[in-house]
Amino acid sequence: MYPPDDPTWVSYTISANEYDTAARAITAPGRRLSSIMRELGHSHIDILKMDIEGAEYSVISNLIESGIEVSQLLVEFHHRFKDIGIEKTQNAIKLLNKYGYKIFDISSRGEELSFLRTTRSFFRLWGTC
What we know:
The protein has a single domain (32-126), classed as Translation Initiation Factor IF3. The chain contains 4 helices and 4 strands; from the N terminus they run αβαβαββα. It has helices at 33-40, 56-66, 86-98, 120-126, and strands at residues 44-50, 69-76, 101-106, 112-117. A 4-stranded mixed β-sheet has the order 1-2-4-3. Strand 1, helix 2 and strand 2 (69-76) form a beta-alpha-beta unit. It starts with 32 loop residues before the first helix and ends with a helix. The mean pLDDT is 86.
């Protein structure tokens, strides 16, 4: 992970080109959400908020691949980063739409999107079907 140029900021990123700090990169352990859920005995997530500085794209892919039930997904997309771009965000939104996630809110900056899962499994989760 790469630290911000300004030492008073707190947000590290996986985006090597965002900050000019490659020499100060750190390695930190990470775990998949599915592993944490299994360890804690959880079968679904009601609300998942992601502001993870460019890592949201791989987490979204893993979320879909793992079949994790998330009722609401709140994501800050980082397509403004030099090595990411808007196409990655568009592809992530298409993937989420394909698996039943529909946008219900977009921030005025256009980077924070809120999704509601509208598939049948969502309604079974709440017992309305």
